[in-house]
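Limitations
The structure tokens in this dataset are predictions for the assembled complex, not deposited experimental models. Users should treat interface geometry with appropriate caution, especially where small molecules or nucleic acid strands are included. An illustrative entry is reproduced here so readers can see what is and is not provided.
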Amino acid sequence: MNDGASNRSTRTEAMARRRIGTRASYLLAATTQTGWLQVARWRITKFIVVLGLVVTVVWSVTGASYFWPGWVWFGLLLPYASLLAIRVAIHASKRPSLAVHGALALILAATGIFIWLMGRLGYFWPMWLILGFVITLAVHVWVVPLFSNDREKVLERRVDVLTRTRRGALDVQEAEMRRVERDLHDGAQARLVSLGMSLGLADELLDSDPIEARRLLREARTGAVAALADLRSLVRGIYPPVLADRGLDGAIQALILAVPLPVEMNIDLPSARLPPPVESAAYFAVAEALANVVKHSDATHAWIEMGLEDGNLIALVGDDGNGGADANCGTGLLGIERRLVAFDGTLQISSPMGGPTIISMEVPCES
Amino acid sequence: MRVVIAEDLALLRDGLIRLLSAHGFEVVEAVEDGPSTLSALIGQRPDVAVVDVRLPPTFTNEGLVAAIEARRQLPGLPILVLSQYVEPLYARELLSDGVGGVGYLLKDRVMDVSQFVNAVRQVASGGTVMDPEVIAQLLVRRSVDEPLARLTDREREVLALIAEGRSNAAVAAGLFVSEKAISKHIANIFMKLNLPLSDDDNRRVMAVLAYLNARTAHPEK
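Predicted assembly:
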């Protein structure tokens, strides 16, 4: 018994020493901050080591058989080890709750084993403790995330969606800018260059060939009109003036006036204007949907419904055409979807072969 | 002829003043925002006004709103509305009082000086001048519904030209037919659109309005 106790004592001492060493290195690694905190930590560490050694020396001098300093070591180290384990767990893992759970289980299991070592050994009862911890940890690892609406998971998914949609929105914007640049370059800019040339030539010919000069002046005027027409259609594609003037309701009325089939319109929006980006996204979405009706559906009749529900703008565009609309063929519907997704909106298409087609869009419009 | 001009861009305002003065108009007031447009229109009661749609302070359709309000207070006050873009919806609003003396043109048309001055004179004399662009936007539509479906293609062509503010003679010249044939077409149009008997100018306005009103299922507000 005595032999066993002294054996155990050296073992525990070594364990304790090792633990202190590990803890100290953890401490060095974990604390990047300098100053009083670190100094205080080192003082506490030194205090623990010195006190542990002192009681161990007292024990060896008194020659007591039972290694009671083990309990002093235990009392000194347990709070410190617990705090450190939790601290490391929080910083080390993607799932801090699980890591803390694991760390605490580890500390408690170690405590059990220590108490068993300090006691009479024999039946290894901490086994049941460890088994319990393993089971609860397993539940935490596999079962809990299946049933709980894990906030972390939700946030992770949200970040994924935001990353994707932000990229999509930037792509849309980039493509738009490039289109504007190209349209300006090939349209208005080119026309103005040719207009300037006509004017220059007319200036030269004014005295020698007034008839030709007059022809060139007319040509210049035609060119100016054409340049204006180009700019107008460009502006309409960027932000339709009627949308700024009249809001969604009026702009969609104007849209319907230019569609070559009867469109029934039922718009129920508050008189206060919606946030401009939402208005613009919804306008272009409805415009694209109507353009699809005209181009592909062979419909004789279309309808639009629009309203606010629970802070969401809901727009439905339907027709009595052939159906078979698919977002994956052609860029139109895909473009709408990407525009809407940038505002957390959604697009749904119901278009069985033979029709009817209903395109429903939903955009949250709380700013 | 006394003219009021409402245009916020100094460059265009001065250009319009110069252009109209050179053609024998007397510019009695030139204003540059919505509220002063309305007070100038009411205060001056000009023979004709040239008003830009987009004016301060809102830079939306301030000019159009002022024009419609002025004509509500002084029915038939001749106003020619100019804009960088035309919207059939606004054309319909301008015409909806059915009185005439209204024009709606793209600013581009100012470049064809003689035609522009003609348009101003026509509006001053109670006529209706619609920009060909408005008509073009409306012609996109297939005619499947009432009342325009009852018109023949030729009659629709004639109606489009009338909407632009052309006289019978000008329509006849444009379509290479006799004026007499045009008169017959016009009589048919009026009949098919169920327009009440009244003076010819007013019926022309009504015909154009019918044209603009066709196929808008949205109830009038």
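Some entries come with short summary sentences. For this one: The mean pLDDT of chain A is 81.
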